[in-house]
Amino acid sequence: MDQETDTVAGTPSSLPWYTRPAARTWTCAPPPPGAHRFHTELPGYSPTALHELPALAREFGVDRVFLKDESTRLGLPAFKALGASWAIDRILAELTNGASTGGGTPRLVTATDGNHGRAVARLARQFGGRAHVFVPDGVHPAAVAAIKGEGAEVTAVAGSYDAAVREASEAAAAPGSVLVQDMAWDGYEEIPSLIVEGYATLFAELDAQLADADAPSPSLVAVPVGVGSLAQAAVTHYRSRTAPREGGGAVAAALLSVEPVVAAGVLASLRAGRLTGVPTGFTTMAGLNCGTPSTLAWPVLRDGLDAAIAVDDDASATAVRDLAGLGVSSGPCGAASLAGARAALTGEGAVERRAALGIGPASTVVLVSTEGAAANPQVQALDPADR
Asked: Does this model's pTM top 0.85?
């Protein structure tokens, strides 16, 4: 049965919570294996680090806590290159009848809150092409400069991420251009689907790394959410396993999405029972500042996501500092996973929330940190007037 409360007890009233424990029994088909094979053959590929953090295990009252550290992924400070590289390789292969490099490289167009745009720009340059990146309000100037540093044309959009996506889509209609967006909508689904396939590599690595650490499958995985594509990859990975049988077998992982309070489109959609968008405001978690979930992600999240929570900039900033103290580089978006897990598992009302997630003293928790500090230097919560 779905459960929801207006707030997370013991936290500010702006932190909503939603849970649906029945999601653990939902199953789906596994992701295609091609992207993982492709990534392992790229020059310079290696799995990103998995850190065990005993201090957080003590804080959360669980057996073990691990953090998947995406601060260095294929030479960039965020996970986004996984999806962009696979999608662009497939685009170019289709355009050139199987040759992934060589003449006729299109102009790659995208909208971004930072990390995806830089990944597309880097890969366009590596493939000998050009990128045009549309950037909405709220993206840190250093992130914009990093995109320009990859050789991309950058267009600033006076508006939200959704507005930037619309402008990018219009620009990509020009001859010789292709839209490479990680958000899907009706009529635009093939490329976002490839990007989600690329993200599956992260979770394949995670399985092997947990096994190497003699750790069980996770009891809880916390994933930062923008349009929901990474969370879609997480749900697809964990729900494509055999459903747990009553009375025996491994218990399926609980999956927790974490969004900014000013851009909690997935949470709002779950509460409404339908895909819905929300107005967005300023947040230091710029890469998560997306008001409308991807249409491809939505049905997967609706059916397979256990819980959703939203956190504010102060909670994210605290998590950034705490992780830095533990030797982990994480930006505000990456540290949102810690902020969300902390809000869910501790404080007043945690007994009920932990029960809904199936978390106890023997549990293993995994936090997905999607970016390093270099990806987004906004650590302190800022007023929009100070941008």
From this structure: yes
